[in-house]
Structure prediction request, 206 residues.
Amino acid sequence: MGINHRILVCGESEADNSRDRSIVSALEQVSGARIVDCRFMIDRWPCGAFGKVDPFRIVERVLKKVLRFRIKEHIRSRQIGFVVIMKNNWGLRESVARWSRDAHVPTAYDLWVSRTLAAERDGTDRTAAVMLEKSIVENVDSVFATSKPYQEYYAETLSCPRDKIVVVPLAVTDEWLSTPASAGIKHSKFVVSYWGNFLKHHGLDV
Prediction:
């Protein structure tokens, strides 16, 4: 197998996260692909259990430095044919995007956890978040969005070409349904089922 079939996956991830599993599973289906897994699995480290002096945090910092070095060496030595930057990483995405661009390695970035959206939600510095994510988007070949509305949002907010944004649904979308959602409703009252986290910005209080 040639090095062009090696796909490097990096960033923070969770073993039980359905989106993370779906993306990695899809990459594994690429003919002849070999996954070079450099993810940091955040759900394997019980950080904070020992207070301020937490041995797990010390090990975490060391492991992240080791992973950062491995990722850099893989890309710079041109041993990788494609790079996928996953969500929630520790300042790694900017560096990986730059390393990949310099080495001419195609790269995709998952915008599921967007700092720009988080800044709007939390009332923090949105301008800084937009500038950061613009710099990343400009250096990668494609980005992932969870829906078409987000595709439009990123295209406008980050000045990103729409054909550069690939929609990777986070859950079921209307397009997957063969009949309209209201087709089977015969009464004025019905139950809405929700599956997910109970976070403020999800608007569950509506």
Remarks:
- The CA atoms of residues 150 and 167 lie 9 Å apart.
